[in-house]
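# nightly structure sweep
# worker-07 picked up a monomer target from the shared queue
# config: single-sequence mode, recycle default, output format = structure tokens
# input follows
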Amino acid sequence: MTQAHSRSKPRKRAQALAEMAVMVPFLVIGMMGMLDLGRAFYYQIAITNAVREGARYAVQPYYLGLNPSCATPPQNPGANCQTASDDSIRQHVLDELAGTGINMTSSDVQVLPNQGDRVNNIIGATPTSQYPISVSASFKFYFITPIIGSLIGDPLTINTSSVFRADY
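# output follows
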């Protein structure tokens, strides 16, 4: 009886080793896929927060002097205008992403209405206040795990936007 018992033990070890060899690649790919999806969610959240902060910055009065005036478009609104320039709004979004590892450029960030239309809303014949300002961004996310990338689509385009009402 002991002899039969000792013969089956090496067979069970070999079977367990073979099963482990088959399963380990699937476990590693699954773990890498979960890490990739976690990274994608992190990027989505960070970009959404940065865009939200950019929109919040865009709708706050830029200058609170006694006599605010704006340059006529297409010039820069200037230091005495109530609205921030498109470039400063884009830079605010990029500054919010500093330290996150997300590399975006100012061309990835869009501001609507554009700087000229916002200035016209302030200095026009009938000034318009409390109109919506939209800030949006687009980013291409590349997966590390090739299988996840082929299933979901590589690169995955992350689009996000935020709309606030102007305070001026």
